[in-house]
Amino acid sequence: MSDFPIVSTGEHVTRQVLSDHPELMVVAFRFEEKGAIGAPHNHPHVQSTYVHSGRFLFTVDGVEQEVGPGDSFVVHSDKTHGCVCLEPGTLIDCFTPRRDDFL
């Protein structure tokens, strides 16, 4: 169990850091309702996303893709990305280097 707090990141969306190191961070994003939004954003970190549960419509660098349990993908540095929840669930994101703004 993580000692990090659960933080609201938007309506019906939370994040919790699961583990971190200066070179790597693992974060759970939980989407509690259909239609919840992971707002479009970008950052200098490389991000990998694993869909633990639920279904999501992701837009990465202008390209849309629907993903579900077991799917994973990488978002390269500074690429704009975001998602809409189609079925409630959890995304597990890894960032390198870690997202110090999440601490």
Mean model confidence by pLDDT: 97
Low-confidence stretches: none
Share of residues in strands: over 45%
Question: How big is the Rg?
Answer: 13 Å
Pfam families: Cupin_2
Domain Cupin type-2: 33-87
InterPro entries: Bacilysin_H2HPP_isomerase, Cupin_2, KdgF, RmlC-like_jellyroll, RmlC_Cupin_sf
Protein name: Cupin domain-containing protein
Task: Note down, in words, how this protein is organized.
The protein has 103 residues and is mostly beta strands. The chain is built from no helices and ten strands. A six-stranded antiparallel beta sheet has the order 1-2-3-10-5-8, with no helix packed on it. The chain has a four-stranded antiparallel beta sheet with strand order 4-9-6-7, with no helix packed on it. The mean pLDDT is 97. The radius of gyration is 13 Å and the shape is globular. The protein has one domain: Sandwich (Jelly Rolls), CATH 2.60.120. 0% of the residues lie in helices and 61% in strands.
Structure, briefly:
Residues 33-87 form the Cupin type-2 domain. With 103 residues, the chain is mostly beta strands. The chain is 0% helix and 61% strand.
